[in-house]
Amino acid sequence: MGSFTIWCALTLVLAGAVGVTLQLAESTWTGGLLASLRARTVALVASGVALLAFALALKLEPIARADGSLVRLLSHSRGDTLVKIMTILTTLGDAIPSFTLATMLAVIVYRQGRHPLAWALLPVVVLAELLVQVGMTNTFGDLTIGDIAASIPSGNPGILPSGSVARLSSIFLVAALLWRSHSPLQSRTVVTIGGVLLVLQSVSRLYLGRHLMLDIVGGLLVGFALFLLASYVVGRPSQIDLQRRD
């Protein structure tokens, strides 16, 4: 019962974090909090500062162990069947599957004819995330769940940020950003599908013991930051798009 309660609380926290991230992203094209260039710039800087703070925090063993204690508790509730299911789910955010997904979405966006060049942002954000990961690893070398409890991870332990979470969040947010001039309703659908997959991805990484909680939140920050950078390129809907939508 204790493990079930922890999982329920954790899933709600992850869903909340994903929901806030998606809501903030959507506000860039719905005229909300981050609609202005200045607001997006502030959010981008804040995301970078938060990620830096997490990286420095995970270099401190007491903080890393405190985060790791939660993953250790969750690992006690593992079952063979669920491990197999989670192992399949978590591969969606791996580099090759996520790049393939980004390319497929890019083809759909290209076929819409609204963004003749911006569709290339989708595979680019995946490559950009991989560079961020390499840079973070070489610069900080923070403690991972594998360093704290080598027997916990089922598979390879991940680093800060969670690359799978960062890639999926950036892919779906950028796709929705490109879709918003084609169909606001479809754009919302893309965000919703991405949100569901992000929650599943985050839960799977923790269930398998491959990430700390800070890794997951760091992945959301990186995905959000990459989306903000893409929004500078895409910009706001043109007057022609607005007229077509009416």
Can you describe this structure?
The chain is mostly helical and 246 residues long. It has one domain. Helices cover 74% and strands 0% of the residues. The chain contains 11 helices and no strands. The protein has helices at 2-26, 37-57, 61-75, 80-90, 95-112, 121-139, 145-148, 163-179, 184-207, 213-234, 239-245. Helix 1 runs antiparallel to helix 9 (184-207), helix 1 (2-26) runs parallel beside helix 10 (213-234) and helix 4 crosses helix 9 (184-207).
Largest sheet: none
Number of strands: 0
Shape: globular
**Uncertain residue segments:** 237-246
Radius of gyration: 18 Å
The helix fraction, in percent, is over 70%
Count of helical regions: 11
Strand content: under 5%
Structural class: mainly alpha
**First-last Cα distance:** 53 Å
Mean pLDDT rating: 89
What are the secondary-structure elements, in order, as H or E? HHHHHHHHHHH
Short description:
By secondary structure, this protein is an all-alpha fold. Helix content is 74%, strand content 0%. The chain has one domain.
What are the key terms here?
mainly alpha; 246 residues; single chain
Question: Could you outline the blueprint of secondary structure elements for this entry?
Answer:
Layout: H1 2-26, H2 37-57, H3 61-75, H4 80-90, H5 95-112, H6 121-139, H7 145-148, H8 163-179, H9 184-207, H10 213-234, H11 239-245
